[in-house]
Amino acid sequence: MTKILIPSAEHGTIRVFAISRPIADMAHALKQQHKTAIASVLLGHEVSQDDIELFALSDLTGIGLHGYLAEGYDVDKDTLRQDFTRLEALDGYVLLVFSKVSAKGDVTLTPTHDLTLIGTYAEPKAKHIAPPIVTDASKLYSGVSQDPKAPQRSRAGSAFTAAAVLLTLLIIWWILR
To answer: 5, 28, 116, 154: which has the fewest Cβ within 10 Å?
Structure first.
């Protein structure tokens, strides 16, 4: 397979790779090594847990890879519809590579012959339909007063507390006498 360049400016892209290894071999490898170690070898580049997802398609029984991408990552259903046949025909294990892999700089992946790129899908960007709210209440720290003051204590409250303590002491003295 050819090299794949992922620029550091890329965000919100998922690359789906089929792994062309027997299911039993992959299951055994995953018991022996961590997913990131296997993915790093397959991609020819060191990856972290947040950069990839490696799983058996049998884990998606009932929803399928098509549904997982549509519901789990909100990938455009029209785009997925174009690749529906290829996605549903996959068997065994798949590897999802996220653009986060290039967070520290441009990355060049050199996939082994065991990987087949099935598709590259963009996660949707937020739709900013409403205009921003511009009011005094929406300004930062608008609910905090500029000069907070400590609560004032009244002398009457202190006098009442002193009188109650004195009365309690007198009652105790009278009972003990």
So the answer is: 154
Q: What are phi and psi of 90, to 5 degrees?
A: -70, 150
Q: How far apart are CA 96 and CA 40, in angstroms?
A: 12
- Where do the domains of the chain lie? 4-122
CA 56 to chain centre: 21
DSSP state of 101: G
Q: Are strands 107-109 and 115-122 parallel, antiparallel or unpaired?
A: unpaired
Q: What is the mean pLDDT of residues 153-165?
A: 83
Q: How far apart are CA 11 and CA 101, in angstroms?
A: 10
The 8-class DSSP code of residue 12 comes to S
Structure tokens of 94?
A: 């798949």
Residue whose tokens read 């409403």:
130
Query: pLDDT tens digit string along 88-128?
Result: 889 999 999 998 888 788 888 999 999 999 999 987 766 66
Mean pLDDT, residues 21-46: 93
The DSSP bridge partners found for residue 5 are 108
